[in-house]
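[step 3/7] fold_predict: job queued, chain A
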Amino acid sequence: MTACRTLSGLAVIALSGVFPSASEAAFYSGTELFKVCTTERSRADYIEKTYECVAYITGAVDAFNTTRETNKRRSCIPADVTIDRLKTVTVDYLRDNLDKRDAAASALVFAATRAAWPCGKRK
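[step 4/7] structure written:
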């Protein structure tokens, strides 16, 4: 029994260094996302960075929309909005809000889409 507790305690200690703390929980900051999304076309990694940017933004938007759907609410983003438009709205928001770029990128994608397509008031 004591050996089991000791092993469990050691496992917790070992794993505590693997997972980010709450203050480090965001994978990307707005600064990092802006850098990825504005990679110069002439760079060898342009295509990779473009996919990374688009995948992050669409993943964040899908997560927001899933949350809204789970809560029986519709997405505020029009159905005909393209992925390229989502990227443009996000990059423009990040460019225009330099003072907010240290925030989690997912929160900034949400802010960008809310600014572009505000939801109507609840009834």
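[step 5/7] annotate
The chain is about 60% helix and 0% strand.
The domain at 25-116 is CATH 1.10.890 (10k-s Protein, Hypothetical Protein A; Chain A).
exit 0
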